[in-house]
Amino acid sequence: MQLKIALLGGDGIGPEVLAQSVKCLKAIEETFNHSFEYVEASVGAVAISNTGKPLPDATLKLCREADAILFGAIGSLEYDNNPDAQVRPEQGLLGLRKELGLFANIRPVKMFDSLIANSPLKEHIVRGTDLVIFRELTGGIYFGKKSISEDGTRASDVCEYTEDEIGRVTHLAFKAAKKRRKKLTLVDKANVLESSRLWRKTVSEIAKSYPDVELQTMFIDNAAVQMMMNPTQFDVILTDNMFGDILSDQGSVIIGSVGLLPSASIGRENAMFEPFHGSYPQAKGKNIANPVASILSTAMLLQHYGLNEEANAIVSAVNESFIKKVVTLDVLGSSKYGTDYVGDFISEHIVDPDENLNINDENIGLGKSTII
C-alpha cells in the first residue's frame, strides 16, 4: 500500500516521539513491502514563531491532501506562563479538529499484563482492563460561544450539541462495540444538563439499530469513580467532549503512565493519530520521553487502513519491550533506556520479531479488537 503521511511534530517532546513512530513505519515498509511518503509541517508554538499562526495555511493544506496525519504534541512554557496571550499553541490542534471535521476521538485503555506493576491501582482491580473511549471532539463546551463581562467578574461557556453531532460519533461507537464485547456505556449528566438529556435521547434511539449491543447509561461522577474501582466492567465508553477529556486522563492513571496511551481522531475524510500526552517541555531534548503512545498511535493508523497484521506487528514489538523492560523512566521505574533506544528496540523487533513471543498469550491491545 502507498500512503502519504503528514508529520506534525509540534512542540516540546513531540518531534522526538514522532521520530520513533517514523522508525516503526519504516520497519513496516521494509517488512510488509509498503511505500509511505512522509511530509513534515509545523503547528503550535513553533508555527507561531515561524509564521505568527498556530495552524499555518500550508500545514492545513498538507493535512487535507494527506492520507493520514501523525501528530506529536503541542504546548510551550512561554504560553503556559502567559495565559492572556491572544494567539496560543493549542489553537492549532483545535483548529485541525474543526477544519478537518475530526469529530470522533478514539482512546483505547489497555492494561498489558507485563505492566500491571506500573499501575498505582491493585492488581485485582486493573488486570484485564481493556476499554476504549469514544469522545465527541468538535462540539460541546470547548467550541461553544464564550463571553466575559467588561469588568472581568462574570464569564460563560455555552455547551451546545445537535442530534447530528451526537449521532455520527454514536454510530462509530456502536460499530466498535459490535466487534468487541458488545457493551456500550453512555456517560453524561442527564440529571442536570439539557445537552446531556439530548445525548441520552439520541443515543437511546440509535441503540435500537444495534440490538446485539447492550446500552448502559451512567452519570459522569459515578463513571469517574467506577473507572477507578472496577475498570474491567467497561468495554466501549461514549461521551461528550469535556467528559471524554476527563475520563481519558483517568485512563492514563489506570495503566500507570500518560506516555502509554495512543489515540485517533477520525472524520469523514481525514484521520489524525497522536499520543495522548502533552508536550512535556521540561523533557525536551533530554532523551527521556516515552515514545510508546506515539508508536501505538501509529499502529492505530495502520489498522485504520485495514493493515491489521502490520498493526499487530507494532503492538507485539511494543509488548516485547515491556517484557524485556526496555522502557523509559515513567514505566516500571527504569532509568536505563532513553527515547531513541526504546524506539530502536521496537522498530528492530518489527523487522526481526522474537520467535518466542506469542502475542495471543498476552491478548494484547489493538491486535485483539478492531476499535475503528
From TrEMBL:
Give the Isopropylmalate dehydrogenase-like domain ranges: 4-346
The cofactor named in the record is:
Mn(2+); Mg(2+)
Query: Pathway, per UniProt?
Result: Amino-acid biosynthesis; L-leucine biosynthesis; L-leucine from 3-methyl-2-oxobutanoate: step 3/4
Q: Which reaction does it catalyse?
A: (2R,3S)-3-isopropylmalate + NAD(+) = 4-methyl-2-oxopentanoate + CO2 + NADH
Q: Write out the entry's keywords from A to Z.
A: Amino-acid biosynthesis, Branched-chain amino acid biosynthesis, Leucine biosynthesis, Magnesium, Manganese, Metal-binding, NAD, Oxidoreductase
- Record's GO cellular component terms: cytosol
Q: Which InterPro entries match?
A: IsoCit/isopropylmalate_DH_CS, IsoPropMal-DH-like_dom, Isopropylmalate_DH
EC number(s) recorded for this UniProt protein: 1.1.1.85
Give the Gene3D superfamilies listed for this entry. Isopropylmalate Dehydrogenase (3.40.718.10)
PROSITE patterns, alphabetically?
A: IDH_IMDH
| Gene Ontology biological-process annotations | L-leucine biosynthetic process
Q: Recall the GO molecular function terms of this protein's record.
A: 3-isopropylmalate dehydrogenase activity; magnesium ion binding; NAD binding
The cofactor binding remark recorded in the entry reads: Binds 1 Mg(2+) or Mn(2+) ion per subunit.
Q: What does this protein do?
A: Catalyzes the oxidation of 3-carboxy-2-hydroxy-4-methylpentanoate (3-isopropylmalate) to 3-carboxy-4-methyl-2-oxopentanoate. The product decarboxylates to 4-methyl-2 oxopentanoate.
NCBIfam families xref list: leuB
**The protein's assembly and partners:** Homodimer.
Recorded family membership: Belongs to the isocitrate and isopropylmalate dehydrogenases family. LeuB type 1 subfamily.
Q: What is this protein called?
A: 3-isopropylmalate dehydrogenase
